Structures
1.
Amino acid sequence: MRVFIAIDFTNEIKEQLVEIQRYLKNGSKKGSFTHKENFHVTLKFIGDVTPEQLQSIKNTVGIVAQQNDPFELAFSNIGSFPRGNKSIQWIGLEHSSALHHVQSQLEDELEKYGFAKENRPYKPHITFGREVVMETSIQSLQLPTIIDKIYVDSLVVMESTRVNGKLTYSPIHYSSLT
């Protein structure tokens, strides 16, 4: 089973993300764009795990969730990670001490179970598309403004699978923040 820990969104937030993604699609030549139901913020990518490891991950997520209060996130800028002549398109989040604290706690707690800490700085974002080739620059697009904040009240363990060739992220465990 291939898993990661994330923050999931309400349908309303996902609809707003779809609206922005539509503009990016229109300004691109091609790309593999994220399906609406797959929008999320990754806290920790783990990868393939055994059933025993999965139980440790669920327990850890529960412990971290119990030690943190709900918090809000706000969208920031649109950006991209270059990959040759293609890129990964994303929207970032404004700095959140609460988000970074939760993410750091997860890293520390999971390391106790043998999961390696990420060696790159944490850069929270929501991926709009992979292998995107833009026709025009992102800066020249007239993107809609997002106003809503994201209310985070739970952490989720997600499974990543392919269903009929489509990448699918399915929640398999939620833990509520207290």
Note: The helical segments are 11-26, 51-66, 97-111.
2.
Amino acid sequence: MTKSLDAHYRAVVVGGGQAGLSASHYLQKLGIDHVVFEKNTVAHKWKNERWDAFCLVTPNWQCQLPDHAYDGTDPNGFMVKEEILAYVDRFVKKVNAPVFEGTSVTSLEKVGNLFRIQSSAGSVTADSVILATSLYSQPFVPRAGERLPEGITQIHTADYRNPAQLPEGAVIVVGSGQSGCQIAEDLHLAGRKVHMVTGNAPRCARFYRGRDVVDWLADVGQYDITIGHDGMAKKKHDTNHYLTGRDGGRDIDLRKFALEGMALYGRMTGVSNGKMLFQPDLKSNLDGADRVYNGINALIDRHIAEKGIDAPEGSPYVPLWEPEAETTELDLAAEGITSVIWATGFTPDWSYVGLPIFDGTGYPVQHRGVTGVEGVYVLGLPWLWTWGSGRFLSVGKDAHHVVDHLAAHLDRTRRPLKQMANG
């Protein structure tokens, strides 16, 4: 670990998660002096923002960090929390990045041909900067939470660990994305009464026609499609499909949960007088999720037919349950609700970046991690380049490309660098 700051670095990496560490790996291979600033600890989110029953939703074989591919005995399984932490910890030790932990970056600005980075450990200049802080910096909780009755426990998914941490009583989970659905299942399996507030999150089958859907999609080439393809630009804002790797992997079907006693609602619109209010769009939300589910399976059907693959027969999903009526308000006290879990996502924190690299929505404008400001790069964003850009699958490939480009930038502006090895 780095003990003291130099005045100048050829590169500064902001963020010590999987993206920042991947960048450091390739920077070290080129001998580019650099420092990594991490406001918490390396791999903080994996260590401190995952619940006890957390597991991967993609097969272990998709864990492809740089020079650190999964080499365990169950490539088609799904690592549980302890196994993921061990995998990440081995990567952290292998990279041995020059990282300053507990160090926040408070400003980034351009001064002449250099960049000035002010951090809680001091100020440095750099020839280049890689922003690897992801879109998940700050847990987002709607302001409606301020109007919930006193005495109701409120936590974000980042702070949820297990059902036992919540007071006795019913729980309402707001948000049906990947984390929300898995936590709702965790509570449901523990015998808690769960109320689930849905949104427009899509869903995906776990297994179809004899194989994991992820394996089929890899064969089809879905993980190689780039954001540059027609109609793909909007993908960067898409919600992840919900499914799970728990207990060997299975679908998450909210309709099945409803048959088992889970209460479902449309999108939340607010809180008033002890009641949570909803849009009458539950059926639309469920139908939309199933439409994506069946669409993915139809894509696999076409692939099997075109390639003449011998596989078990498949069929479209048929809804197991339909809402009889749309509930638009819920009396929290009457339903015995004592806890609310906000599965409402995160917001990025780019407040320290004083550079013109953002679009009108505050999202970095970039092409495969390269921004419009020469020498400034971003890494680790969902759909930075492909479906796997924000995950173990492809973050290393993105980091390799970014560092390759960064090296060429340094070569043009300062002393030459040795060529990066292919890989």
Note: The first helix runs from residue 18 to 30.
